[in-house]
Design brief:
The complex is a heterodimer of chains A (566) and B (161). By secondary structure, chain A is of the alpha/beta class. Chain A contains 23 helices and 16 strands. In chain A, strand 12, helix 21 and strand 13 form a beta-alpha-beta unit. In chain A, helix 10 runs antiparallel to helix 11 and helix 18 packs across helix 20. Chain B has two domains: 92 residues, Methane Monooxygenase Hydroxylase, Chain G, domain 1 (Up-down Bundle), CATH 1.20.58; 47 residues, Ribosomal Protein L9, domain 1 (3-Layer(aba) Sandwich), CATH 3.40.5. With 161 residues, chain B is of the alpha+beta class. Chain B is built from five helices and five strands; from the N terminus they run ααααββββαβ. Helices cover 55% and strands 14% of the residues of chain B. Classes of the chains: A alpha/beta (566), B alpha+beta (161). Chains A and B meet through helix 2, strand 2 and helix 19 of A and strand 1, strand 3 and strand 4 of B. Chain A: This is Cell division control protein 45 homolog.
């Protein structure tokens, strides 16, 4: 059931108890977790934090811990499947689920006792009505049990006839109801999408209790920006949520506008920026950033020689000398940096890039540390998905969690370096894929498969990095192809996951259109295709559109998918 | 050392009986080295005692079996004596119940601390009888006095943020 008063029904319930937190492995979940941890530490709530990266880990961790806790909080996992069925908990276990995955499974919505959803109901959920899906079983008991005890034979016969007629009517009604139910559920569960960021939900809770701080606000901002960077929400929703956060930012940081009472220069302050869309440009050189941001790289077509020339023309148009542009941003001439944003936006408009600037936030603390929200998102994402030596995903999770605190700046800078490597590798892979025509059209979708020996292939074995690569590849492909029909097709991407076990990760991306609503139908499509061909798949990720598949079953799986979608 | 002692003994007898006074420097030299060896052995044993005393502060009153295996019987006895005198002292402080001075080696800043588990430890009992499973890389927020022992042993790491 949906929790209406977060404070009374959630926070005050767990305040006197020990809770277990299951946190999924994405940046939004990390931010929500940090906010919740800060609240719990303020109120001395004893908790245990367990990172999980998939359904299997969630199940094992739950089995290990279930005797010791009664209250469980799940962050960014568990809303889109039948939780009680998967976890098989005891009668008195209570789950609080704060998840952005939609559609919310109907069992989770209508279970009043054990599952409480920390999701705002005005979030365009469109849950089907209770009576359409669930039906009491008592009606069915009547049909067989009316025993015809001895009475007049003629009366008995008419009564029997009436009973038979009533039974057939009931059966027909039931069949119709079941068919309607199947349709409703199919429509409801067909498309996967994402709702409001969990970090923002947690920040809202903190604000309701008047325990919100600037730090928590920054984590909420990073959580929202993560959703935008990974294309999980529509542009409109992003702008709406930015507006909500902007009000909080001005409430917390208004002392900077007042001339008399300004804070010292090195205090933490968050400010709203209408800044360039280039990834990490303040920690890199402008040239590198232009080459490695998907937005600019796709529109300039930087994988071709012609594209490189256009980039030079663009820089000349802005008025930036090449020598300046290729050195670190912080060492560029001040005179060039002064009106940089406006100059670049003007020239970008001439070159067909209308959305060069985007609404975002930045944080300043200390005398020289300034970060945009997207910088922190890229850094944390790379820390979490960096290939690790010992194979346990939890080390990376801990590193990434630590990097979000302001006292662990060295980890954040390390993350920025990893992010630069990741972005560079992404663009190089995209360039090679497009130049060697690895993206082929299979009919209802485009298909691209990364080979084993591709350089940096190990950087793309985790879902978020692979998803970034796939989406950027699709965007670049849309700009590179002349075939109008291909521009509207979705993409299925396959990358090798583990050489010893011979598995590949397969991921589905919805088609790239300007006004796309980011709804992904590949989750159900993959399930059906796997069932139909008996392929050995593992639906381990919380996002249902990412699966693991045995390499040998790849071709029959794809054939099934083609026939399913055409 | 025994060999040196026996050689010395035979030489002393020879000097006493045979009157060979030129052996006296040799005897003196051997005696000095015997004394030095004894000093080294005693220093080693004393260092062991100091370490055993530190173990009481690190591990509490019950030592893990691995450590007990390496201690001799006399050392165990010394340890028990030390434990007893420390306990008597602690009981004599702080009024009726006594004061546990092995807790809070540094001034505590907060009632509860955030700890991260560095290795798999297993189940750990908390105040209300229930237990927490300590697995690698899980983070917990627990009362300070319960975690202190484990933090000292290196199983948990105090997370400052």
């Amino acid at each position: 059931m949906f929790v209406s008063d977060f404070r009374k029904e959630f926070y005050e319930v767990v305040q006197s108890q020990r809770v277990l937190l299951f946190v999924a492995s994405d940046v939004d979940a990390l931010c929500a977790c940090k906010i919740l941890q800060a609240l719990f530490q303020c109120d001395h709530v004893q908790y245990t934090l367990v990172p999980v990266s998939g359904w299997q880990e969630l199940e094992t961790a739950f089995l290990e811990h279930k005797e010791q806790f009664r209250y469980f909080i799940l962050i960014n996992c568990g809303a889109n499947v039948d939780l009680l069925d998967i976890l098989q908990p005891d009668e008195d276990a209570i789950f609080f689920v704060c998840d952005t995955h939609r559609p919310v499974n109907v069992v989770n919505v209508y279970n009043d006792a054990q599952i409480k959803l920390l999701i705002k109901q005005d979030d365009d959920l469109e849950v089907p009505a209770y009576d359409d899906i669930f039906r009491d079983e008592e009606d069915e008991e009547h049909s067989g049990s009316e025993s015809d005890n001895g009475s007049e034979p003629s009366e008995k016969r008419t009564r029997l006839e009436e009973e038979i007629v009533a039974q057939t009517m009931k059966r027909r009604q039931r069949r119709e109801w079941e068919a309607r139910r199947r349709d409703i559920l199919f429509d409801y569960e067909q498309y996967e999408y994402h709702g409001t960021s969990s970090a923002m939900v947690m920040f809202d809770l903190a604000w309701m209790m008047s325990k919100d701080l600037n730090d928590m606000l920054w984590w909420a901002i990073v959580g929202l920006t993560d959703q935008w960077v990974q294309d999980k929400i529509t542009q409109m929703k992003y702008v709406t949520d930015v507006g909500i956060l902007q009000r909080h930012v001005s409430r917390h940081n208004h002392r900077n506008e007042d001339e008399e009472n300004t804070l010292s220069v090195d205090c933490t302050r968050i400010s709203f920026e209408y800044d360039l869309r280039l990834a990490l440009y303040q920690h890199w050189s402008l040239h590198d950033s232009l080459c490695n941001t998907c937005y600019t790289a796709a529109r300039f077509k930087l994988w071709s020689v012609h594209g490189q020339k256009r980039l030079q023309e663009f820089l000349a148009d802005v008025g930036l000398p090449l020598k300046q542009v290729k050195q670190k941003f912080q060492s560029m001439d001040i005179s060039l940096k002064e009106n940089l944003r406006e100059m670049i936006e003007e020239s970008a408009n001439k070159f067909g890039m209308k959305d060069m600037r985007v609404q975002t936030f930045s944080i300043h603390f200390g005398f020289k540390h300034k970060f945009l929200a997207s910088d922190v998102v890229f850094a944390t994402m790379s820390l979490m998905e960096s290939p690790e030596k010992d194979g346990s995903g939890t080390d990376n999770f801990i590193q990434a969690l630590d990097s979000l605190s302001r006292s662990n700046l060295d980890k954040l800078y390390h993350g920025l370096e990893l992010a630069k490597k990741q972005l560079r590798a992404t663009q190089q892979t995209i360039a090679s894929c497009l130049c060697t025509n690895l993206v082929i059209s299979q009919g209802p979708f485009l298909y691209c498969s990364l080979m084993e020996g591709t350089p940096d292939i190990v950087l793309f074995s985790k879902p978020a990095s692979l998803s970034l690569l796939s989406r950027h590849l699709l965007k670049s492909f849309v700009f590179s192809t002349k075939n109008r029909r291909c521009k509207l097709l979705p993409l299925v991407m396959a990358a090798p996951l583990s050489v010893e076990q011979g598995t590949v990760t397969v991921m589905g991306i919805p088609p790239e259109t300007d006004s796309s609503d980011r709804k992904n139908f590949f989750g159900r499509a993959f399930e059906k295709a796997a069932e139909g061909t008996n392929s050995r798949t593992l639906h381990n990720h919380f996002d249902l559109s990412v699966i693991e598949l045995k390499a040998e079953d790849r071709s029959k799986f794809l054939d099934a998918l083609v026939s399913l979608l055409s | 050392m025994k060999a040196l002692y026996e050689q010395n003994q035979s030489d002393v007898n020879e000097v006493k009986s045979g009157g060979r006074s030129d052996l006296i420097p040799t005897i003196k030299f051997r005696h000095c080295s015997l004394l030095r060896n004894r000093r080294c052995a005693v220093a080693y044993l004393y260092d062991r005692l100091l370490r055993i005393r530190a173990l009481r502060w690190e591990y509490g009153s019950v030592l893990p079996n691995a450590l007990r295996f390496h201690m001799s019987a006399e050392e165990m006895e010394w340890f028990n004596h030390y434990k007893k005198s420390l306990a008597t002292y602690m009981r004599s402080l702080g009024g009726d119940e006594g004061l546990d001075i092995t807790q809070d080696m540094k001034p505590p800043k907060s009632l509860y601390i955030e700890v991260r588990c560095l290795k798999d430890y297993g189940e750990f009992e908390v105040d209300d009888g229930t237990s927490v499973l300590l697995k690698k890389n899980s983070q917990h927020f627990l009362p300070r006095w319960k975690c202190e022992q484990l933090v000292r042993q290196g199983v948990l790491e105090h997370v400052l943020s």
